[in-house]
């Protein structure tokens, strides 16, 4: 997604053509990849309580699910940090929304929790919600997939174009779509869930791991160095050729300036040169 934006903003103004390379950030998910064991029918969201994360859509989608299914054994846990009083007020608003929708007993808030608690929650969760529109990347979705959680991410930006590959999760935009995907996830049997987790974890390891970043970074650095050396080589060759031609022209010029009549043909040659 971001590569496309760079192409639109920068490359289109250049005369050298498209030489952009996509390099994903390293996501250290080794601990999450080791998570195994049974999962409870629970849903988790991991994101700072900022307005662009759209937690409101998550609560509304969960309410839609409860209304459609009548289930009371599924819980939604919102995990995130707060930066200031505005973020704290945003959490309070979400709590009030849960009360208004009648799902306050099924929605839990885990605010600014330590990593050990986050790891515990991810180890137990089955579904992961992501609702930010046009997020550049979406490392939270990567962590869901590494932890064996089935992601339901916003159908835009990085999650759509780079992260949630076919068969490794779901994409949605409206609360109804999120609701339907939650219902679908809870209907999957263990074999189907296992296949989705395998596909997701393979994608994470192959594309977003520290090792993948290191390999691609070194490869691109080598390419840049090679192109630079190649450019210098070409310039040196052209410079050497120019020096040779210049020397030859000087020799011819000296000879032509003599009175030797046998140099007339060389004078014509020099003129052409």
* Helix content percent band: 55-70%
Unreliable residue stretches:
269-273
Using the alpha-carbon principal axes, give the shape. Answer: globular
Give me the secondary-structure category. Answer: alpha/beta
Q: Write the element-wise H/E pattern from the N-terminal end onward.
A: HHEHEHEHEHEHEHHHH
Question: Count of helices?
Answer: 11
Major sheet description: 6 strands, parallel
Largest sheet strand order: 3-2-1-4-5-6
Percent range for β-strand residues: 5-15%
Distance between the termini: 54 Å
Q: How many E strands?
A: 6
Fold blueprint:
Elements: H1 2-9, H2 30-33, E1 42-46, H3 55-69, E2 75-80, H4 85-101, E3 107-111, H5 115-124, E4 127-129, H6 139-146, E5 150-154, H7 157-163, E6 170-172, H8 175-187, H9 190-207, H10 210-256, H11 264-272
Parallel strand pairs: 1-2, 1-4, 2-3, 4-5, 5-6
Helix pairs in contact: 3-4, 3-8, 10-11
Please provide a brief summary of the model.
Helix content is 57%, strand content 10%. It has eleven helices and six strands. The chain is globular.
Search tags:
273 residues, alpha/beta, 11 helices, disordered C terminus
């Amino acid at each position: 997604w971001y590569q496309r934006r760079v192409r639109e903003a920068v490359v289109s103004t250049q005369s050298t053509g498209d030489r952009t390379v996509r390099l994903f950030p390293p996501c250290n998910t080794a601990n999450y990849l080791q998570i195994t064991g049974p999962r409870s029918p629970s849903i988790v969201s991991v994101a700072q309580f900022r307005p662009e994360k759209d937690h409101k859509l998550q609560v509304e989608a969960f309410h839609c699910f409860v209304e459609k299914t009548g289930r009371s054994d599924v819980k939604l846990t919102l995990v995130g940090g707060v930066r200031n009083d505005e973020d704290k007020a945003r959490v309070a608003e979400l709590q009030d929304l849960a009360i208004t929708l009648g799902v306050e007993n099924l929605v839990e808030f885990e605010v600014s929790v330590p990593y050990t608690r986050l790891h515990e929650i991810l180890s137990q969760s089955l579904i992961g919600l992501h609702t930010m529109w046009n997020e550049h990347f979406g490392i939270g979705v990567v962590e869901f997939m590494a932890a064996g959680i089935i992601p339901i991410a916003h159908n835009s930006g990085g999650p759509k174009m780079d992260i949630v590959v076919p068969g490794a999760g779901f994409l949605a935009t409206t609360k109804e779509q999120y609701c339907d995907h939650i219902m679908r996830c809870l209907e999957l049997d263990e074999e189907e869930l296992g296949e989705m987790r395998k596909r997701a974890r393979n994608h994470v390891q192959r594309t977003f791991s520290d090792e993948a970043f290191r390999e691609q970074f070194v490869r691109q650095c080598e390419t840049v160095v090679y192109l630079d050396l190649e450019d210098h080589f070409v310039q040196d060759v052209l410079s050497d050729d120019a020096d040779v031609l210049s020397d030859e022209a000087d020799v011819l010029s000296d000879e032509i300036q003599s009175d030797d009549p046998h140099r007339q043909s060389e004078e014509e040659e020099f003129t052409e040169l």
